[in-house]
């Protein structure tokens, strides 16, 4: 009985709170670019290998829907890396790595008139094509924070994200993760 009353009180508070906030529903589509800084390591072979950090340009796009405090968006982006290591079993010119992310991100922010600061968390599939080792995909998560500046029907944004994903390639366990800096432009409808 107490749980039912508590659930009704919480639901009423959410409805009243949502009704007090002016509706700011908008659909958007956009492009993004930035830098991906991946940590890569391999284990399970004769020798564990730690690669040097590698920053690479990332590019992609997003489509989303924002309503008041919350936004949900579908995101795709790609980055190309060249992993270097001091290990003699790795070619001196490095190992080419292409990564692709396809997923969904949720945002929770403060919908001010022009500025929308937010935190974001997402989940999706990270695919990696590692030259000489093969291709694989696995679930990946990311978390971060950002801000969008609304200028009429255009939104300019910047965000910092941490990503983490692991999988097995060529009977070796690979661990990837690192910071990503995203900048972009959304067209607001």
Short description:
By secondary structure, the chain is mainly β. The chain has one helix at 2-20; strands at residues 26-43, 49-50, 54-67, 70-83, 95-109, 115-130, 134-151, 154-169, 172-188.
Description:
This protein is mainly beta and 189 residues long. 10% of the residues lie in helices and 69% in strands. Strands 1-3-4-5-6-7-8-9 form an eight-stranded antiparallel β-barrel.
Largest sheet, in brief, is:
8 strands, antiparallel, barrel
Oligomer: single chain
User: Could you estimate the helical fraction of the residues in percent?
Assistant: 10-25%
Q: What number of structural domains do the residues give?
A: 1
Number of helices: 1
Question: Any chance you could write out the topology, listing elements then pairs?
Answer:
Blueprint: H1 2-20, E1 26-43, E2 49-50, E3 54-67, E4 70-83, E5 95-109, E6 115-130, E7 134-151, E8 154-169, E9 172-188
Antiparallel strand pairs: 1-2, 1-3, 1-9, 3-4, 4-5, 5-6, 6-7, 7-8, 8-9
């Amino acid at each position: 009985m107490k749980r039912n009353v508590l659930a009704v009180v919480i639901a009423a508070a959410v409805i009243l709170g949502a009704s007090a906030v002016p509706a700011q529903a908008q659909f958007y589509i956009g492009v993004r670019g930035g830098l991906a800084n991946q940590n890569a390591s391999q284990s399970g072979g004769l020798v564990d290998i730690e690669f040097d950090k590698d920053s690479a340009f990332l590019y992609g796009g997003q489509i989303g829907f924002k309503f008041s405090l919350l936004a949900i968006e579908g995101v795709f982006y790609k980055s190309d890396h060249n992993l270097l290591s001091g290990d003699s079993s790795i070619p001196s010119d490095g190992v080419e790595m292409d990564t692709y992310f396809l997923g969904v991100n949720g945002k929770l922010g403060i919908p001010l008139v022009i500025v929308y600061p937010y935190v974001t968390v997402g989940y999706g599939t990270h695919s990696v094509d590692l030259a000489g080792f093969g291709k694989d995909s696995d679930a990946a998560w990311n978390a971060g924070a950002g801000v969008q500046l609304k200028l009429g029907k255009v939104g300019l944004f910047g965000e910092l994200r941490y990503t983490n994903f692991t999988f097995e390639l060529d009977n070796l366990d690979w661990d990837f993760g690192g910071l990503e800096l995203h900048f972009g432009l959304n067209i607001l409808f």
